Amino acid sequence: MEPSAEQISAVEAWLRQNFPAARIESGHSFDREVELFRIRDEKAPAPAKELEISDLAFEDHAVADIISALGRERAAWRLAQEPERRLFLTRELVLALSGHDPRR
Question: pTM for the whole thing?
Fold first, then answer.
């Protein structure tokens, strides 16, 4: 099931807090059942930092738990350190490298 607008907005707000000079884009991938978030720095828009969150994570967990996991897993730091790598938050709320990064 696709995440709700409220769930997506909460993650976007967290990303804006951590990347205040960035534009946040999001979209759903139905074939892979993930929500993809792109963080584009206004001064250096490429490469965009990318974060995928499993639809199952949104189904199984409160959005507050997802936000907490992003903090615990140091997602903002990892995205800033390696902007060329797409990260994936799993159903179990573990942050890993995405196996579906078209840039690799």
Answer: 0.93
